[in-house]
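Example record

One chain of 69 residues, shown exactly as stored in the release files.
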Amino acid sequence: MLNDPLFIIAAIACLVVLVILMLGIGSFGKGGEGAAKRSNKLMRYRIYAQAAAVALIVLFVWLRNMGAQ
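Predicted structure tokens for this chain:
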């Protein structure tokens, strides 16, 4: 399982979501109008990355269950 390419891609996608989340929170904590706009943009990117990560996880689980039958 750990050497499955789709699992690795899904794990990387989860890490990307985490990095974007941390950058967005950090930008929000700085304060100011420019930081708020940047934080808002990063949170929007996080939603897209999170949707992709969830889709990859669902695809991985679905393909794993298809192979088990």
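Notes: The chain has a mean pLDDT of 90.
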